[in-house]
């Protein structure tokens, strides 16, 4: 279960400093549903702790579905 390629053009434009999210297909593996998820952010606008909190919250939500 891997992404084959992710590439985002970033020209350093402050107007386009929004986070970029990518996700893959859901797949069942060993009785669990798995999904690839990638986030690209600029460290000047978002701290790593915020991405960690997002990942934790997303995982809790998916565990309940």
* Mean residue pLDDT: 80
Order of helices and strands: EEEEH
Helix content: 25-40%
**Radius of gyration, taken over Cα atoms and rounded to an integer in Å:** 14 Å
Q: Strand order within the widest sheet? A: 1-4
Estimate the global geometry from the Cα principal axes.
Answer: flat
Class based on secondary structure composition and strand pairing = alpha+beta
Number of helices: 1
Q: Give the low-pLDDT segments.
A: none
Rounded to the nearest angstrom, the distance between the terminal CA atoms is 21 Å
How would a crystallographer describe the biggest sheet? 2 strands, antiparallel
Strand content: 15-25%
Number of beta strands? 4
Kindly list the characteristics that best describe this protein:
1 helix; 4 strands; two-stranded antiparallel sheet; 65 residues
């Amino acid at each position: 279960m891997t992404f084959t390629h992710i590439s985002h053009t970033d020209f350093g434009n402050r107007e386009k400093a929004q986070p970029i999210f990518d996700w893959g297909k859901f797949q069942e593996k060993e009785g669990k549903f798995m999904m690839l998820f990638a986030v690209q952010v600029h460290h000047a606008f978002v701290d790593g702790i915020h991405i960690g909190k997002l990942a934790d919250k997303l995982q809790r939500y998916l565990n309940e579905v």
